[in-house]
Amino acid sequence: MIRTGQAERAADVLNRTTAQAQSAAQIIRRARDFARKGESQRQDENIARIVEEATSLALVGAGSSGIRMEMRLDPAAAIAFVDKVQIQQVLVNLIRNAAEAMQETEQRDLVISAGPAAQQGMIEIAVADTGPGLAPEVRDKLFTPFVSTKSAGVGIGLSISREIVVEGHGGRLWAEDNPTGGTVFRLILPAGPPA
Question: What domain range is 51 assigned to?
Answer without folding.
Answer: 41-190
